[in-house]
Amino acid sequence: MAREAETLDKPGTAGASAAPHSTGGHSPQERLEASAGGRWLLRAFLALTVTAVVVWNFPGSGIRTGVLPVVDRYMNATGLAQNWKVFAPDPTDTTSELVARIEYADGTWEQWRPPRGSDLVGEYRTYRWAIFADRQHGEVWRSLREPLARWLARTHGEGGRRVVKVELISRRRPTPPPGTDGPPPPWEQSTLFILDLSSGTRR
After folding, report:
1. How many CB atoms lie within 10 A of CB 60?
2. pTM
3. Residues of the chain where predicted confidence (pLDDT) is lower than 50
């Protein structure tokens, strides 16, 4: 037993070889931070990002207008772009929604609204729909109305039901100030696009 214990205590024996050993090497981030060039790149990146964020949040001015084309590309590429006009100084005073009336060959119809997730985390999944619907009330994304109507006709024409007409409708109404009592104002409705599959027309 004593001889066996001595063997286990000697360096280089099987007992010592079972001790953990370093794997060696460093992660790319550690190597970057350890080198002089890497630290210079990190400082430049941080300085550029802070400058871009500050310029992006400038009020309207000649300086902001001059550098905005460059800053805009950087902010969008890094995902840092934010538009604070929704809060101040002139927040939107109109509530709008996009709906579609889908008519079938048998004379029935149904109404479609863009999907909306739960108030907690579902908005992250469907927020793109809210942006898409909001842009449809203007003329910037007008070219996407027909593709949307055709997509609705295709996805709602399953199960043997034939879609004959899709009408995209804009609904808008003034947003009452906070603390206003009573029912909200009525919706003002207008047609954005009509896809008539029975006659092959669109307008």
Report:
1. 7
2. 0.56
3. 1-23
